[in-house]
Amino acid sequence: MQKLRYLTIAALCCGLLSGADWLTDGGGPRRDGWQRDEHTLTTDNVNDLKILWKIKFDNKPREMHSLFPPLIVGQIPTKDGPKQIAIEAGISDNLYAIDVDAGKVIWHKHFEYPPPTEGRGLRPGDPLCPGGQTATPIIGPANASGARTVYALAGDGMLHSLNVADGEDVAPAVKFGFANGKSYALNMWKGVIFTTTSQGCNGNPNQVWAINVNDPSHKVMTFNPGSGGLWGRQGAAIDSTGTAWAPTGDGTYDPENHMFGNGLIGVHVVGTDLKLKDWFEPKDWFWMQKRDLDMQVTPPIFDFKGKELMAVGSKACRVYLLDTADAGGNDHQTPLAQTPLMCNQEVNFASAGIWGSMATWKDANGTRWLLVPFWGAVRPDFKVPISYGPVTNGAVVALKVEEQDGKYKLTPAWMSRDMNRAEPPVVANGVVYAYGNGEYTEQAFPDRGLFDNSPLRISRSTHAVLYALDPETGKELYSSGDQITSFSHFSGLSVANGRVYLGTYDSTLYCFGLGK
Amino acid sequence: MKLTAAWRRVDRHRRQSGFNAMAKRLLRKRKVIGMRKFLSIVLASGLVTVLWGADWASQSGNPQRDGWARGEEEIVKGQVQGLKLLYKTKLDNESKGLASLTSPIILSNLITYLGFKEMLFVGGSSDNVYSIDAALNRLIWKTHFENEGDSAQASATPGCPGGLTASVAITGGSSPMRGGFHRPRKAASAAGPQARRRPAAPVNEGVFASGFGRNGYVFAIDSSGYLRFVRQSDGNATAVPPVKFLPPNSKVSAININGTIVYAATVDGCGSNPNALYAVDLGGAEQHVVSFPTNGSGLSGKGGTAISENGTVYVQVDNGHGDVAGGYNSTVLALNPEDLKVEDYFTPSGMAPAAKKGIAAPGATPTVFTWKGKELVIAAGRDGTVYLLDAESLGGADHHTPLAQTAPIAAADKQYAGHGIWGDFATWEDLDSGTRWVYASLWGPAGKAAKFATTNGESPNGSIVAFKVEEKNGKPALVPEWISRDLKTPVSPITTNGLVFALSTGESSRLAKKNGDLYTAAEREKMAAHATMYALDGTTGKELFSTGDDVTTFSHGSGLALANGRVYFTTHDNTIYCYGFPAMQPQLTER
Which CATH class is domain A2-513? Predict the structure, then answer.
């Protein structure tokens, strides 16, 4: 028995030593939503998921926003020994560090600053512009002693560098963004942090931003695509060359005049400037612009048969497959492959289409999967071999990426059960995690016209539901049912070391796992 | 906004035929005024950044009834030959006599609870109003009006079909809009004639809702004579109570809207109702209907009224009499917008009297436009003479002196053949050359006195005729330019980008049998061929496009509509036809 105990401890230590991290929104710079180092949860045991703990923070929601996807990092040396820590960002300029084994807050940082004087201010009740900290932070690489820095962009536009272990500043904050400017999830490549902005909140331009944390001058680099907001939920995805790919919102396509609305742009650092490297523009961009069907899906990037590919979509509900080395071909408008329209028969701008991001993974057989969440009803003419009843509120569709003789295909494989506004999934150890956010998403009404109002939407929202799905068939393996009591707006899943995390509007972080 | 529209056209042209010189010119122009800066502001505004197309808000497009689709970007010379039938939609409306669907109305973009929609509205004779997604050819809603208590007309006749007869309308015009909001026309900014314009802020917010993303209403008049307010987003017709407006079972000219005042006229004495123009101001807590009886025929033309920049209402009355103008004889009247009192008039000299009481006489709704800083009015006499009038002094001191006039354009007619100018005019100004063009729909052959510089073959059944407004000896003159190919009883022409669209209805122009007896609906149907739409060169009248045999039946009482790369009309079998460019309709082809 004693021997078994030692073996168990050793195994746990090994597990901890080689544990999984989730250092950035979407799991990595390529935003593939694939947790490669998960070993605990399997298709066989995921049905036993339960809430291990939940923490309600003192973070005050702003408009519909509250918590962002937690970042998970193990082996952080603290004064109490190495710990696996979750960094949870709250909209009201809060950062919380949680000992995930204990489910206890280790430290809490609140970014203090005087009320911003720049910009045109925010409009109360506007869900689009909440102000505050809107970007999911990012955890940098470990230094020689194993310490790590978390970079967080406060609501005043200052980029903070904090020690993950204790929340202390490791460097002075530097100006990176625009106060209350609605930045999206931070991403990082070789010391350069990227973010994107949208909705012109507080007068902030819609553009890609970058800053080299090692640059003593702290020069802020930007590229403005002359479009609507760049509101891919997970910000920009970064490919193997350091090119940051970001979708652009409604706007005109006019490349000669540097306008790239309703497209996907790739920018990279040249010297100390951000330069456009390539772009893709759907041929029906004008239609998308006219019907407010923004390209707003952060593209997952992945390797496939010697190429580096990516996929992007929009509220129109079509997925495009692209080569990062030549996005859209010579005319920038020819994808490698594209799906038919999968949802949004009504051509609705608010409650239908692909929102946020996707996930992708390669199974043991070498099949490359693309997981696409969408809101609203599936189109009647979208054919998928496996499905699970009517889909009226949203679902996850699994596509196989296939290539034959140089021709690519996105082949529908399965569609999940109905989910109330399916959000970006995560795949880990052969299990697909997805959730319906439970959010009331209508923005226009017969009697009032356009009325996108936070109090109304909050009052009509229900609660999020976490699902675990079989990766081959989409069959439901687990549902959290009514256990989560609030909805989740523009947050996301994190998965690491046998735990699945999701934050909700009421500033509660849920941690699901297998227990003992 | 015009430059934004122009810029989109640049992109279209680039995609179709490379980056041409026109595109470069527009680019330079755009750069000069800092359009990018403007766009950046728009895009950074936090609002949805969709840049909007143009509307077609009422009969002949706008309250001025000029039939000009301003800001159209796709339907241009050189491209128009590529028009194709995008779709046709048959609605479940029941025809009444010859009446079926009214002229289509287009709202370029409305933020509805179903998403952003380009909406086509059309009235149906059986007291219906329909909304179609104009880009996707999908029925969005249908609203049916129940009779409000007045007894419905027992049977339809060709002249008096009963049911819903007035073309529906929305506020606004035929220019590019942004934001999907349609404000009532702005209040006057200067003293003088403009001072009497209606205030822009209506009390009845429910009907005239404005602002980004707000819903508006479709205005319709049902067979009971009630003015109905149909919510654009979902067709709800009860949220705003209807207003008793006209006598029941009237035949009604197209609705016109200026500020908070709605105009419509009863014509042809239907329902035993006197012919009169009615107006109701919806801006106050209570609605008072005022009327102007013609004591004779109804208002001429399809549009009924034309409204000038200062709100003056221009109409033409073929025959009748009033206190101010005396006896009407193809008389053009300027009416006060609020009380409909006659403020000015023009009666042509030497016009022969109307043919026979009870039989409609040729005539057209006047059109108002600005030429060299001055507002002018175009009107047509019963004999096809076209008159150019000063909007501020219609007939001069003696009320009989126009600024200019043509010779009689129509062939003489003594046996009810219907020869003459009908419907509404169309007019536009070529901004490059400064040339003002005027087009009219002529039924029957041209008269011997009509001398056009360019002809396009014989036109025994009808044609479109074109005139230039030119300055000669310091005075404006009307110069006949061209006459089109033969068209069978064409409806009012419309114009865009130097093109003229004409719809040959297929109907006979005859008003009555040679003995003066009226035709039955069945007889008229038997006499009709199928309708054909044409696109003509606006400077020569040359045929550039024809729908050939696409259309399977005739069109009666419809008008053309054009907006955002598509042209629409309706036919007697309750079908809406839509023509456009398939390559520019990815939503239809899913390519």
Answer: mainly beta
- Per the CB < 8 Å rule, is B53 touching A290? yes
- What is the DSSP-derived secondary structure letter of residue B195? G
Rounded CA Rg of chain A: 21
> How far apart, in whole angstroms, are the C-alpha atoms of residue B470 and residue B468?
6
Calpha distance A48→A46 (Å, rounded) = 5
Domains in chain B, number: 2
Nearest residue on chain A to B206, judged by CA atoms?
A: A447
The reply to whether B98 and B20 lie within a common domain is no
Per-residue pLDDT band at A152 (split at 50, 70, 90): very high
Residue of A nearest to B585 (CA): A287
Is A451 in contact with B213 (Cβ distance < 8 A)? yes
- Chain B positions touching A451 (Cβ under 8 A) are 213
Same domain, B88 and B54: yes
Tokens read off for A60: 């005050």
Asked whether the predicted pLDDT for residue A446 surpasses 70, the reply is yes
Q: Which amino acid is at B61?
A: G
CA distance, residue B38 to nearest chain A CA (Å): 11
The pair of three-digit structure tokens given for residue A462, joined into one six-digit string = 């229900």
Percent of chain B residues topping a pLDDT of 90: 71
φ, ψ for residue A348, nearest 5 deg: -95, 145
Kindly identify which residue of chain A lies nearest to residue B28, measuring between CA atoms.
A257
Return the domain boundaries, chain A.
Answer: 2-513
**According to DSSP H, which parts of A232-365 are helical?**
285-290
CB of B231 less than 8 A from some CB of A: yes
pTM: 0.90
> Residue A249: its chain B contacts at CB < 8 A?
49
Task: Name the closest residue on chain B to residue A331, using Cα atoms.
Answer: B15
B560 and B572 part of one domain: yes
CA-CA distances (angstroms) from residue B526 to A8, A469, B161, B489, B520? 96, 66, 17, 15, 10
| Helix (H) or strand (E) run with residue B38 in it | helix B35-43
With both helix axes pointing from N to C terminus, report the angle between B2-17 and B21-32 in degrees, rounded to the nearest 10.
150
Contact with chain A for residue B111, Cβ under 8 A: yes
The answer to whether B307 touches B313, Cβ cutoff 8 Å, is yes
Distance of alpha carbon B244 from alpha carbon B259, whole angstroms: 19
Chain A residues closer than 8 Å to B10 by CB: 254
B113 to A286: CB separation less than 8 angstroms, yes or no: no
Q: Do B39 and A442 touch (CB under 8 A)?
A: no
**Yes or no, beta carbons of B48 and A250 under 8 Å apart:** yes
CB contact under 8 A, A446 and B236: yes
Q: How far is CA B472 from CA B371, B405, B454, B479, B580, in A?
A: 14, 13, 20, 10, 40
ipTM of the prediction greater than 0.95, yes or no = no
Residues B286 and B382 in one domain: yes
CB contact under 8 A, A446 and B231: yes
**pLDDT band at B310; cut points 50, 70, 90:** very high
Domain shared by B130 and B223, yes or no = yes
**pLDDT > 70 in chain A, percent:** 96
CA distances to A352, A374, A418, B234, B526 from A392, rounded to whole Å, are: 10, 10, 7, 21, 50
Q: Note whether B296 and B315 are within 8 A (CB).
A: no
Distance between start and end Cα atoms, chain B: 29
**Half-sphere exposure for B511 (CA within 13 Å, toward CB):** 22
Asked if B67 and B20 sit in the same domain, the reply is: no
B492 has pLDDT over 50: yes
